[in-house]
Amino acid sequence: MTDKKTLFIDGKEVEFTDEPNLLEVIRKAGMNVPTFCYRPDLTSFGACRMCVVEIEGRGIQSSCTMPPEAGLKIHLNTERTRRIRKTVLELLLASHDKECLTCEKSGNCELQKYSEEYGIRKIRYPEKQLEDYLPIDDSSPSLVRDPNKCILCGACVRACSEFQGHSVLGFANRGSKTVVQPMNGRPLGQVDCVNCGQCAAVCPTGALTIKSDIENVWNEITNQNKKVVVQMAPATRVAIGEMFGLKPGENSIKLMNAALRKIGFDLIFDTNFSADLTIMEEATEFLERLKSGQNLPLFTSCCPAWIKYLEDQHPDMLHHLSSCKSPMSMLSPVLTELVPKYYNIERENLVIVAIMPCTAKKYECKRPELTHNGRPDTDYVLTTQELGRMIKEAGINFNALEGEDADSPFGEYTGAGTIFGASGGVAEAAVRTAYEFATGEILQDVNIKQMRGTTNRSRDIELDLKGTKLVVRVVSTLREAEKAIQEIKSGKAPFQMLEVMACPGGCINGGGQPRSCDDSKIKAERAEGLYKEDSELTIRKSHMNPSIQKLYQEFLDHPNSHKAHEILHTVYQDRFAGSYKDI
How many whole angstroms separate alpha carbon 473 and alpha carbon 467? Predict the structure, then answer.
């Protein structure tokens, strides 16, 4: 056990143990200082100088880079620290595009927040001139980059490098000409960005934001000739409530259903249903590969950022990918085929919208493989954040709603479908079904807790399928996925299945979720919310979902059938082989 030591903050004795810096000690003690560049999950950078404190005998220090020492006497709010912070704010505002009323981050911008808190009403420095403004980059299907709102905190650069090992974004030029930009100054849509959105998640201003489809969806809803169908991913239900004052991890699925109906969606289904469908297909595929010994380890294929990374960086490894579409992209063609039949709706009048925690899903729905007769299977993707804004725009009191159920039959799901939203959830759900498919016996304890966790980004889990020894590796972030790939290429990989989620902790921490980068506990609380729902559901194995069983009986025949492959599976291609059209 680590020995506790003490220091003093504004005269109060405070204990500390293994906190990496003074800022974490200050926050743990229930106090705070402002910061733009510090994020607990990223390395300390010390760029913004907002978190300065005054230490007796040491003078002014940045709290995010200084390690704690026993006996330090720290002052948070001295005349010098306040003056420094106000100066930093004025300098940032002098070169900032201050169109706050029309900014995507208005009301959720740290520069706006601190400028208000510190009472900045006048700027003493020359302001940026119109000719100095840089063009806005909206070339990405998922993100919008506005360099005029960048404060050079470097959080996006570190997120791209440290989470994804990718370094799509970097600093260019020097002095007053310094900017953050994609490689070689190219548009974001023309570099090998995987669209994960973690850069936007850590950005404190409106320099990186989610590309919005809100107006497009409103236009479809208000079109009397259209029937708009919506599906929502597992992770959205334990995060949307945060936008309305609820606690992280609180399951708001029934409130979501009610809000979606009030907004005007005609039919509401649940992507958890198709998560169960994914397990039926993927578990069968895995057992077939295990039997033949070919194309192992099997890579999960639910994360579009991971798929794009493989296409861009390791096309020689694509044969390891499961051919299963993601749950979103499985449910959409099923709805296209069956909603017109079940609900007497003309196909040409049907619009399919997906509510996702992930900005990369906006990219996924535009992939040419996921179209039919030239039309996308999923017409629009809205992130959790976008849905929250739509609910507010519609004047809906979210917390006062009476909970409602989704529509049948594509709104029924098991606990296995729910846990897809957390890192390790896909693999755990797959093992619950694969065990029973392989052995013919009932898996008594479905809680495979060693697969769970939001802090350990890579873990190997040893399993026994009635004498067949298996190792499943679960990773989150592409940096960890790259390590696994190198093990495979060197012939040293001990695992037969690799689950990859690009976002730290999985979809619960997706780039489209409400902001969580300042509090690492939020990811764990969201995950706990999913596992809680799993534990409370009567059915916790995907193959036991009666609506899934009926779908196979009446439409798909059996898992991995010819019909199932036509609708639920796809093939990915080398993006540089000349056969793939860029999106």
Answer: 19
Q: Is the pLDDT of residue 382 over 90?
A: yes
Q: Quote the domain boundaries for residue 549.
A: 215-568
Cα separation, 547 vs 569, in Å, equals: 20
pLDDT at position 2: 55
3-class SS of residue 55: strand
Q: For residues 146 and 60, state if they share a domain.
A: no
Does the pLDDT of residue 69 top 70, yes or no?
A: yes
Please indicate, yes or no, whether residues 271 and 257 belong to a single structural domain of this protein.
yes
Judge whether 579 lies within some domain: no
- pLDDT at position 168, please? 94
Work out how many domains the chain is built from and give that number. Answer: 3
Q: What is the mean pLDDT of the chain?
A: 94
In terms of domains, do 296 and 202 share one?
Answer: no
Range with the poorest average pLDDT among 55-64, 169-178, 419-428? 169-178
Radius of gyration of the chain (CA): 25
Q: What is the DSSP string of 102-149?
A: G-TTTTS-HHHHHHHHTT-----SPPPPGGGPPPPB--SSSEEE-GGG
Question: How many Cα atoms sit within 13 Å of 539 on the Cβ side?
Answer: 16
pLDDT band, very low/low/confident/very high, at 579 (cuts 50, 70, 90): very low
Angle separating helix axes 304-313 and 478-489, nearest 10 degrees: 50
Give Cα separations from 358 to 96, 142, 182, 488, 517 (angstroms): 28, 9, 21, 28, 15
**pLDDT confidence band for 582 (50 / 70 / 90):** very low
pTM above the 0.85 mark?
yes
CA dist 506 and 523 (Å) reads 9
Amino acid at residue number 205: T
Say which CATH number the domain at 355 has: 3.40.50.1780
| Phi and psi, residue 228, nearest 5° | -105, 120
Instruction: Please say which residue of 210, 239, 259 terminates a domain.
Output: 210
Residues 166 and 249 reside in one and the same domain: no
Q: To 10 degrees, the CA torsion angle through 200, 202, 207, 210?
A: 20
pLDDT tens digits for 220-246?
999 999 999 999 999 999 999 999 999
Which CATH number fits the domain that encloses residue 175?
3.30.70.20
Tens digit of pLDDT for each residue in 170-180?
999 988 889 99
Q: How many residues does the chain have?
A: 583
- Angstrom distance (rounded) from CA 417 to CA 94: 49
Can you tell me the distance from the alpha carbon of 305 to that of 359, in angstroms, rounded to the nearest whole number? 9
Mean per-residue pLDDT, 66-84? 96
> What is the rounded CA–CA span in Å between residue 40 and residue 21?
10
Question: Catalytic amino acids?
Answer: 282, 285, 302, 322, 361, 364, 369, 507
- Distance in angstroms (rounded) separating the CA atoms of residues 55 and 41: 26
- What gap in Å lies between CA 465 and CA 404, rounded to an integer? 40
Q: Which domain-ending residue is among 49, 77, 105?
A: 77
Work out the average pLDDT over 354-372.
Answer: 96
At residue 583, does pLDDT exceed 50? no
Token pair belonging to 305: 């950022």
Q: Are 219 and 372 in contact (CB under 8 A)?
A: no
